[in-house]
Amino acid sequence: MQSYNNRWITIFALVLGIIMVIPIYMMVLGSLRSAEHVFDITLLPTQFQLSNYQEVVASGFLRSVGNSLFISAAVTVIAMLFHAMSGYALARLNFPGRKYIFAWMLSTLMIPLAVIMIPLFMITKNLGMANSYVGLIVPSIFNAYGVFLFRQFYLNFPKELEEAAYMEGSSIAGTFFRIVLPLSKSVIIPLTVGFFLANWNAYLWPLIINQKEQLWVVQVALANAIGGGYTIPWNFVLAASVIAALPTMLLFFLLQRQIVDGIKMSGIK
Amino acid sequence: MSNVTLNHVYKKYDQINAVKDFHLEIHDQEFLVLVGPSGCGKSTTLRMIAGLEEISSGDLYIDQVRVNDVSPKARDIAMVFQSYALYPHMTVYENMSFGLRLRKYPKTEIDQKVRAAASVLDLEPFLDRKPNALSGGQKQRVALGRAIVRKPKVFLMDEPLSNLDAKLRVQMRTEISRLHKQLGATVIYVTHDQTEALTMGDRIVVMKDGVVQQVGTPVEIYHNPTNRFVASFIGSPAINFIAGQLVTQGKQLYFNAGYISFPIPTGKAKQLLEQSLNGKEITLGIRPEAIYDDLAVIEATPKQTFLAEVEMVEHMGAEYYLYVRVNDQSSLTARVNARHHYQIGDNVKLAIDMNKAHFFDRKSDICLV
């Protein structure tokens, strides 16, 4: 009975996997074809021309890939640090209004970006951050989701490890950086991947806060490639899309085990 | 010199008193054991000494310096936790040197101290391993090593052996006692295991509901418990209690439970009569080893014998624990030599050594004699 169930689960998972992979496969096939054959429905490659990729490289698209990499990495690293510190403070330190501050932070999760887009744009612009990396990075750092997950993780963190460090002569900050943070990998890794992907895929905010072409991120550059004229060069767009998808796929393959472990752990605990 | 003084210390959580009026001086190089059931306040007391819990009222002195408001790191105390609290991302060497590195000791001195401590604890082959790759006993030794490496004034140990198996626990008990003597350190040790308390402590503090019940040497605590709780908590198997009355027949004072009656030896009888307790309802406490099945003892003390039915026998190797029922009224435990073979349902004749009996007030549970 057990193996019968397992077989059906495997078949179901395989079907789901194929459904997920087909669009990516079609994207790769299309990126290797000429413009007139880009939408041919075939399972096997009919053309293998790299000229689409050469065109994408020549168009300066790689600069937007670089921008996206830099911005996503910067937001992720800074966010992880500050979110971990905030989560730790909310879980462990006793200060007046701790519960209210947490509730207030959490309530910001209920407000979609579109609602605060205009005031956020005005504040960022008035602070002189528009059309700059700072404007693309700083507003994306603030996110209650990371703080919430870190707080929940630290609520279950073994207190004796911290107390042992205090007894050994460590300060609160020292204990956090020497003991707590290195032992937070199981929450940091899935959050890092999530944050990196969210920022890599960000479109709306980078579109409105930046007018300079040299600061375009991947998604804005792709949208411009699609919306530039009367006809859309789909072979070019698909080749650019493959390039745009590469870093995130690489990230997933490198950290696959840790991501799954992290998701499992955060789900169970 | 490293003595610790607790001067009328209280710990309150909201309206609950976790520790009430803890007043004690712990001497330099003393091995003091705090023992009691779960929730008795022993760990809270230890944590207050460590500085991990605030003291609600009272004063704490280490070497005559009031340390109520001094941070844990400035108290120069080391603590061994129940879970060992080893840092899993650091090697044994890094775990042991953590405190010294924080205190900015020179690298050569750190290395020398860590290796010296590792040598004392037989940890040299494991210095490059991470805690996950160690057995329970090795982890325990690393936790001890981390504590001894910086030679603090006082060692605090919070049930450090409770996660070990029985055999290893006995071994580590000896090891900690040896270490205490070798280092000449002041140790405050928390446990709920009365065997650990009796075997390791220079003095024992028995606690219940946040209140100190008795402070004394293991011998004092075992042989002269101040109340029924201490008598029942210390000793394994537990002391037997029989409810009864003091009655005088002629010139002899008897303990009479209705179904059994034993003459009380002159010395104890005199003390009881001096307290005008004749006719008073009391509880007799008798330890299992003071009940004999030895024929010579039974014949020598015929008035202190009684018949009982065997309910259960526990074979402990050289001795038996006999669980017997007396006249369907009370259950007693006797610790006897494994000479005779007993079966459930056997009727046995046993004798009580009344010289070793304790008498407790029925209402206050205080030991009268």
Task: Please explain how this structure is put together.
The complex is a heterodimer of chains A (269) and B (369). Chain A contains 13 helices and no strands. Chain A has two domains: 1-49, no CATH class; 60-265, MetI-like (MetI-like fold). Helix content of chain A is 74%, strand content 0%. Chain B is α+β, with helices and mostly antiparallel strands. Chain B is built from ten helices and 20 strands. In chain B, the strands form four sheets. Chain B has a six-stranded mixed β-sheet with strand order 6-7-8-3-9-10, with helices on both faces. Chain B has a five-stranded antiparallel β-sheet with strand order 13-12-11-14-20. In chain B, strands 15-19-16-17-18 form a five-stranded antiparallel β-sheet. In chain B, helix 2 crosses helix 3, helix 2 runs parallel beside helix 4 and helix 4 packs parallel to helix 5 (166-183). Chain A binds chain B through residues 158, 160-161, 163-171, 174, 179, 182-183, and chain B through 50-52, 71-73, 77-79, 81-83, 85, 87-89, 98-99, 102-103, 146, 150.
Q: Could you estimate the helical fraction of the residues of chain B in percent? A: 25-40%
The rounded distance between the terminal residues' Cα atoms of chain B is 38 Å
The portion of residues assigned to helices of chain A is: over 70%
CATH homologous superfamily designation of the largest domain in chain B:
P-loop containing nucleotide triphosphate hydrolases
Which overall shape of chain A is indicated by the principal axes computed on the Cα atoms?
globular
Quaternary structure state of the chains depicted: heterodimer
pLDDT below 50 for ≥5 consecutive residues: which ranges of chain A?
Answer: none
Principal-axis shape of chain B equals: elongated
Structural class label of chain A? mainly alpha
Tell me the fraction of residues in β-strands of chain A, as a range. under 5%
User: Care to count the β-strands of chain B?
Assistant: 20
How many helices of chain B?
10
Could you say what the CATH topology of the largest domain in chain A is called? MetI-like fold
Head-to-tail CA distance between termini of chain A: 30 Å
Protein name (chain A): Carbohydrate ABC transporter membrane protein 2, CUT1 family
Pfam family, one (chain A): BPD_transp_1
Membrane topology (chain A): Multi-pass membrane protein
Domain ABC transmembrane type-1 (chain A): 65-255
